[in-house]
Amino acid sequence: MIKYVCKYCGHSLGQLNQLAVSEKQLGLQTLTRVERQSIITYMPNGDMVANVICEYCQESLEENPDLLLVPNPLQ
């Protein structure tokens, strides 16, 4: 399973339950090694969590970029 979660507020954005989804189909092959490490987490049960940003947090950070200086800006 692949879960998408907002890295700022923790809101679940969706999930894929397909067993055979390639990294190319997800667009992950375009990420650098460092980006992969900061975005993707593999759970002990084999699930993958993609830490992305939801629309609410994106808008909030665009309007208040100084929030990025705070450890947990939108929680």
Determine the N-to-C terminus distance: 26 Å
Portion of residues in helices?
Answer: 25-40%
Number of helices: 3
Strand content: 15-25%
Number of strand elements:
4
Tally the structural domains: 1
| Element-by-element helix/strand order | EEHHEEH
Largest sheet: 4 strands, mixed
Which segments are poorly predicted (pLDDT under 50) over 5 or more consecutive residues? none
Estimate the mean pLDDT confidence.
86
SS-based class: alpha+beta
Radius of gyration: 14 Å
Query: Largest beta sheet: what is the strand line-up?
Result: 2-1-4-3
What's the overall geometry? Answer: elongated
Could you please describe the fold and organization of this structure?
The chain has 75 residues and is α+β, with helices and mostly antiparallel strands. The chain has one domain (2-69). 27% of the residues lie in helices and 24% in strands. It has a four-stranded mixed beta sheet. A hairpin with a 5-residue loop joins strand 1 (2-6) and strand 2. The protein is elongated, with a radius of gyration of 14 Å. 1% of the residues are buried. The model has no long low-confidence stretch (mean pLDDT 86).
Keywords:
4-stranded mixed beta sheet; alpha+beta; 75 residues; 3 helices; single chain; 4 strands
Compose a concise summary of this entry.
This protein has three helices and four strands.
